[in-house]
Write a structure and sequence with these properties.
The complex is a heterodimer of chains A (about 100) and B (about 375). With about 100 residues, chain A is of the alpha+beta class. Chain A is built from four helices and five strands; from the N terminus they run E-E-E-E-E-H-H-H-H. Chain A starts with a strand and ends with a helix. By secondary structure, chain B is an alpha/beta fold. In chain B, about 40% of the residues lie in helices and about 20% in strands. Chain B is built from 18 helices and eleven strands. In chain B, the strands form two sheets. Chain B has a six-stranded mixed beta sheet, sandwiched between helices. Chain B starts with 9 loop residues before the first helix and ends with a helix. Classes of the chains: A alpha+beta (about 100), B alpha/beta (about 375). Chains A and B meet through strand 3, strand 5, helix 1, helix 3 and helix 4 of A and helix 2, helix 7, helix 8, helix 10 and helix 13 of B. The complex binds iron/sulfur cluster.
Chain lengths: ~100, ~375
């Protein structure tokens, strides 16, 4: 949960007076609030935590981090099915499975 | 050097390690504050690659682990009510309360939902105007601003069937408490990178000066951690104690000013209990007067809860760096991620889980016998 994941902004829109973006996290696409990073542009990368962009990141660092997270199964842990994880073996095992 | 090939840039890792080995002349104990860093360290065997004189002590930086049992029990009680939709991040589902967890509450018919973002919980509230939607607001300075924004939005949009069960904690008072403890051995801190992404670094110089302890802001990828260790050890060897930023690509000195402003508006600093550790003054946030109507604790009047911690669990000592997880008597036997006795075994950032997940094959009873109790 404390994990902040870098993602790439695909598009930006305003809803209920709030700036929202569609962000791609290595294949998983989520809606992200831009209120804390209002001048982020389409095509840029940012560190995103629980649906909020917190800081810009350069493309190269973002790409490397995403690769590492995928390798460690951390993206699976962040975006996978939490009920399945909790039902079986505790969240940590999802990462273990993902690495196999 | 069994893990080094797995590093993203093994050559750079090698260089950093060589430099650390060349710099160290005597023993140093460093604490990594963030649970994500702990996992990275254990997963990559960084502690085993470092010179013997450099000891990494795991800190209390797992928000799931430090959420007090009393708050978990309040969450379980609120989530059991028929009028409530209880929303949480996935990692809270299996955290044991007194006798059960959120997963079981759902099995008993409670409407427990997992959300990716607190804004998802707000949307659920908009879609279910006849229900009460409660979001479990835990986490450090990285998670508090998203939750603050959500409460701010609820107020702005006039959504009244939404509330927050707040148990946010702050890192600097925890560092202060660790340094004040008579049993403290920590000589340098690897500060949590993403906390500083939000808060910047200006809370640290005073701490570093008063306790004469270097504080190096550190990311959690393996190379980031090596760089954090390198800089901390270099300071210690030179007799310095300053605040340094080893994670500049994600941390600016001022942090994220918009997020900090929202935090200050929605929350106010309060004393908080940390699971296994006890109350640390000024170490948490609660809703400020302006937003108090969104406080789930008063909305659902969940006072007078009786909690009961399993006596065998020593996670309090683990969280303070006084005990390594595998030194706990029931580690890997009566306590596993399937049958967790403490939150540190169930959380994806917990220290006990990290040892169980990545080290259990190394840990034989004989190794446990031989292990020095810190
Ligand atoms: S191994 Fe289990 S019982 Fe022991 S300290 Fe960790 S969580 Fe508690």
């Amino acid at each position: 949960m404390c994990l902040a994941v870098p993602g790439k902004v695909l598009d930006i829109e305003e809803r209920d007076g709030t700036r929202l973006a569609t962000v791609d996290f290595g294949g998983v696409v989520k809606e992200v609030c831009l209120e804390y990073l209002p001048d982020l542009r389409v095509g840029e990368y940012a560190i995103v935590h629980v649906g909020f962009a917190l800081q810009r990141l350069d493309e190269e660092s973002a790409r490397q981090t995403l690769e590492l997270f995928t390798e460690l199964g951390m993206l699976q842990e962040e975006f996978g099915d939490p009920w399945e994880a909790a039902a079986g073996t505790g969240a940590t095992h999802v990462a273990e499975e993902a690495r196999k | 050097m069994k893990y080094i090939d797995e590093f993203q840039d093994p050559a750079l890792a090698r260089r950093l390690l060589d430099e650390i080995h060349a710099t160290v002349t005597r023993p140093w104990a460093l604490m990594e504050v963030c649970g994500g860093q702990t996992h990275s360290i254990i997963r990559h065997g960084i502690d085993q690659l470092l010179p013997e004189q450099v000891e990494l002590i795991h800190g209390p930086g797992c928000p799931v682990c430090v959420t007090p049992l009393e708050v978990i029990d309040k969450a379980l009680e609120i989530a059991s009510r028929p009028e409530v939709i209880f929303c949480s991040f996935g990692d809270m589902l299996r955290v044991p309360g007194t006798g059960r967890d959120l997963f079981q509450v759902r099995g008993e018919g409670g409407d427990v939902r997992v959300v990716y973002s607190p804004l998802d919980a707000l949307r659920i509230a908009q879609q279910n105007p006849d229900r009460q939607v409660v979001f479990f607001g835990i986490g450090f300075e990285t998670t508090a601003p998203p939750n603050a924004m959500t409460v701010h939005q609820a107020r702005k949009l006039g959504i009244r069937n939404f509330s927050l069960l707040v148990s946010h904690v702050r890192v600097p008072p925890a560092i202060e408490a660790i340094m004040r403890s008579p049993s403290c051995r920590v000589q340098g801190f690897l500060a949590a990178g993403h906390v500083c992404t939000v808060m910047g670094m200006d809370e640290y110089p005073e701490l570093a000066e008063r306790h004469r302890v270097p504080i190096v802001v550190t990311g959690f990828e393996p190379l980031d951690i090596l760089e954090g260790v390198r800089r901390t050890v270099a300071q210690l060897e030179r007799g310095e104690h300053t605040v340094d930023n080893a994670y500049p690509r994600a941390v600016r000195a001022e942090g994220n000013p918009a997020a900090r402003a929202m935090l200050e508006d929605v929350f106010e600093v309060t004393d908080r209990a940390w699971r296994g550790i006890g109350v640390i003054p000024d170490s948490g946030w609660r809703l400020s007067a302006k937003y108090r109507e969104y406080d789930a604790e008063s909305r659902f009047a969940v006072d007078g809860i009786r909690t009961c911690e399993p006596a065998e669990c020593r996670s309090g000592e683990v969280l303070q760096g006084l005990l390594k997880p595998h030194e706990c008597e029931v580690f890997g036997t009566r306590c596993t991620p399937r049958t967790p006795l403490g939150a540190t075994m169930v959380s994806s950032e917990g220290a006990c889980a990290a040892y169980y997940l990545y080290r259990r094959l190394d840990i034989t009873p004989a190794a446990r016998e031989a292990s020095p109790v810190a």
